Structures are given as C-alpha cells and as structure tokens.
Amino acid sequence: APFPFILWKARSEPMKITVCSLNARYIHSSLAPWCLLAGIDRYGDSDLEAVVVEGTINQPADELLERLLNTKADVFAFCCYIWNIRLVRTLAYGLKKACPYAVIVLGGPEATHRSEELLNSWPVVEYINRGEGEYPFACLMNALLRGEDVESVPGLAYRRGGKACIQPPFIASGDPPRPYTAAYDA
C-alpha cells in the first residue's frame, strides 16, 4: 500500500529524500547519487528535497546509520554494488527499525540484477529502481509524494499483493541530466 506522502503537501513541507552511496574507499567516490539528484532537479516535483550521504564500507554501521537518521528523510535510497550490499542491508533494517514509515529504495547494478530475490528476502525494501535511474527515480518520488500508483513508473520493481512485480530495466533514449551541480561541488 502506498505511504501517506500526500500529507507533506498538506503541511506545505517537502518530501525529504536521502540518497546514500557506500563506496569501497573515499577515493572511489560514486557519481550515481549525484545523477539521481540531477534527475530529481530535472524531472521531480518542486516539493522534493534531496541530499546525498556518502560513506565507505569501512565505516562502522552505527556511525553511518546515525548520519542517515540525522537527515530526517522520508525516503532512503541506496546505490547497491557487490561490495556494499551487506552494509546496505544492515542500514536498511536499522533505518526501518528507527523509522518504520520511511520508504527504502534500492538501485544500482546489484539491485537491478537481484530485484526479485531482494524484494522476496528483504521485507524492509519497498521499491527497486532497475537500470538507469535519473528519470525513473524522479517519477517514483513524484508518485509517492502525490499518493499515486507506481505501476507506470518505468524500470521499477515493487510488491503488489505480496508478490514481486518486476519491470524491465529502464534505458534512457536521450542524454541524462548533468550531475555536476553546485551540491556536487560543495
């Protein structure tokens, strides 16, 4: 069932989104979360407020969890790779325990190729973006904010009636928005 995001519009508050990237090392920074923010800037509703939290797989999980919780987000999205999927799982479960109404979204290569398995084995995950994320992630955030059905969001995996619904990965036909924004440079 969709979460009551329409309440944020009634309160005139933005829906807060935190996109988390857990890199192998600080020198191996991922561009993926910044691409998602650029997608929200281009395709998202003006009532969406997104930030990036970057960390590494070598940091303590409780430290990362505290950083994520401090963003007071309504939605937590993770860029998933083979090297960080275990830590993503730990953080997703920790976030859901601390914020039961927060929405957990996965994306990235590891989530795209294991969508059905992850939806079936990680009940804390509501949605998985499959394939290129800039446009679909913004569409998903718009749908959640407006309380709309997510069925038409391209490249999405989700549950309906306890069963995994898996759409093909999204492949953009045009150029994606540029991730090199003022927030990226800060």
Number of helices: 8
First-to-last CA distance? 37 Å
Mean pLDDT: 88
User: Strand fraction band?
Assistant: 15-25%
Overall shape: it is globular
* Uncertain residue segments: 1-7
Structural class: alpha/beta
Helix content: 25-40%
Widest sheet, order of strands: 2-1-3-4-5-6-7
User: What sequence of helices (H) and strands (E) makes up the elements?
Assistant: HEHEHEHEHHEHEEH
What is the C-alpha radius of gyration, as a whole number of Å?
A: 15 Å
Largest sheet: 7 strands, mixed
How many runs of DSSP E, i.e. beta strands? 7
Give a quick precis of the structure.
This protein is of the alpha/beta class and 186 residues long. It contains 8 helices and 7 strands, in the order H-E-H-E-H-E-H-E-H-H-E-H-E-E-H.
Describe, in plain words, how this protein is organized in 3D.
The chain has 186 residues and is α/β, with parallel strands linked by helices. It contains 8 helices and 7 strands, in the order αβαβαβαβααβαββα. It has helices at 6-10, 32-43, 61-69, 85-98, 109-113, 115-121, 134-146, 182-185; strands at 15-23, 48-56, 75-79, 103-107, 127-129, 156-160, 163-166. It has a 7-stranded mixed sheet, sandwiched between helices. A hairpin with a 2-residue loop joins strand 6 and strand 7. Helix 2 crosses helix 7 and helix 3 (61-69) packs across helix 4 (85-98). The longest helix is centred in the middle third of the chain and has 14 residues, at 85-98.
